[in-house]
Amino acid sequence: MTNFTVSKAAIGLCLLCLASTSFAQEDEAGPEGTPKKPYKVNYWISGGITLTGVTTNTFSHNRLRNKPGITEEQVNQITAKGVNRFDRWGLRQDPSKKDAAHEISDRILYSSVIIPFFLFLDRDIRESWLDITLMYAEAQAINSNLYGWSPIGPAFVERYRPAVYYPELPMEERNFGNLRNSFYSGHVSSTATATFFAAKVYADYHPGPGNKKYLAYGLACLPPAVAGYYRVKALKHFPSDVIVGGIIGASVGILIPELHRLARNKASFSAIYTQEVKGLGMIYRF
Length: 286
Known about the structure:
Layout (H helix, E strand, L loop, with lengths): L1 E4 L5 H8 L24 H23 L6 H6 L20 H15 L10 H4 L2 H21 L36 H20 L6 H22 L5 H28 E7 L4 E7 L2
Antiparallel strand pairs: 1-3, 2-3
């Protein structure tokens, strides 16, 4: 453990640093001596990430939706030969059922995003409702921007959606720009972020042995899996698209709470006031 102090002349600089560092929280004994608040959340940092993420996400979605259309010649040249064997299941669907499947996948997405708020039925978690809500908003903002801006998302990876491959569909349903955004599934990614975030927070508030947290993670897999199934049925994505979306979303949903948990355990700040030294102190645990 390393410990150092800051002189009075540097107080202003330290206060600026505190705007980018989470304030230490008091340990509150929970059940079996576990802390009630396992996370450290800086409202300036997390709030800034969320607000910035919402803004940049709006730009990215507009850019993705306004990609150049696919010419009729390009559509007519597309064949299943360019699709790997694993993904060809996406080309064996019933086009007449795509709209119904699309609606179901939307409902699953919209329902899943509210799942983390059911955590507040737990009294210990409810006491930290603002921290949890802000962390969740931060996680969804990061997830959305990974989809819109990362090199593994549709901003850089252009892949035609399965609908382009179906000659039974009218040309106007096979040639617009958004059909270039098959990889990866944003619906599944957002759904997985929500469900795995909820499972991670529940597990952190209820550590120790027991099957409940494993059940929570098991249940977290279901909504993304069902959403992915219907995204394929809706001719929006290939199987690999939904798998990658699920992995990315689950990773974000788990990683954001974990980073806040690690931040709480490793660093704390406190005021130091003596005749010799006036300033701020930081303790960092390795």
